[in-house]
C-alpha cells in the first residue's frame, strides 16, 4: 500500500487528492483532499468512484466523513475553466481543496501524472483512485459533491437532463443543446470546440461561477513547488526538481 510505504519514510498524515468533472460540458470541476487516520483500516467497499453505483458512493461518503481527520473540497468555476483551460482549472480546484484541509499533510498523493505547478510535496500515482485508499476516498467525496451540485442545477435548468448525465456529453445532452442552446453553466470552450465538428450552432454565453455559491474563496498556499512520481511496483519514489 502506497500510504504505508510513505509512512515508513516518516510521513504520518497522508492526504489523497482527486478530481471529478474534467470532461463535462457543464458545471465546475470539483476536487477533494482527504486525510484518513494513520491507523485506520480501509473502509470496506472503497474503490475508484467510477466503479461504484451512486447509492454505494453516497453510503461510503457518509462513512468516509465519519472517519476522516480532515476533508477539503475545492472547485473551479465554468468561467475559470473557459478562461484558463481545464487543466489549469483542475490544478486550481486541487489547490483550493488542499487549502481547506484543517490539518497540514506530511505528504500528498494525487491521482494521475505529476502536477509541476501544485505547490506541495506530492506523489503522482497513475490509476491512484483504484490503488490508494486515501485517493479513492477523495474520489468518492468529490463525485458525490459534484453530482449533488449538478442535480441542483438541473432543477433550475431543466431539459439538459443533468439529473442523469451530471453535465457530461451524452446524446440527449447534445440534442438539448442543439434545440435550446446553452445556459450560463455550460463551458463555452468545450461546446465551441465540439461545434467545429458538428453541423449545428450552439450559442455561447458568458458563464457565471456556479461553484462559488457552495465554496469559499481559495485559501492561499505557499509558492514552493515539489513533486514526486511513483516509478515502480515497489512504490519507489523519484524526486523531480521544481521548474526553473
Structure in words:
The chain is α/β, with parallel strands linked by helices and 244 residues long. The chain has a single domain, classed as Nucleotidyltransferase, domain 5. The chain is built from nine helices and seven strands; from the N terminus they run αββαβααββαααααββ. The protein has helices at residues 2-8, 54-67, 78-84, 86-99, 128-131, 133-156, 162-165, 171-180, 188-195; strands at 14-20, 29-35, 70-76, 107-111, 122-125, 227-230, 237-240. A seven-stranded mixed β-sheet has the order 3-2-1-4-5-6-7. A hairpin with a 6-residue loop joins strand 6 and strand 7. Helix 2 (54-67) crosses helix 6 (133-156) and helix 3 (78-84) crosses helix 4 (86-99). The longest helix has 24 residues, at 133-156. The radius of gyration is 18 Å and the shape is globular. The chain starts with a helix and ends with a strand. Residues 195-244 have low confidence and may be disordered.
CATH architecture title: 2-Layer Sandwich
Overall tally of domains: 1
Q: What is the CATH fold-level name? A: Nucleotidyltransferase, domain 5
Distance between the termini: 33 Å
Blueprint of the fold:
Layout: H1 2-8, E1 14-20, E2 29-35, H2 54-67, E3 70-76, H3 78-84, H4 86-99, E4 107-111, E5 122-125, H5 128-131, H6 133-156, H7 162-165, H8 171-180, H9 188-195, E6 227-230, E7 237-240
Parallel strand pairs: 1-4, 4-5, 5-6
Antiparallel strand pairs: 1-2, 2-3, 6-7
Helix pairs in contact: 2-6, 3-4
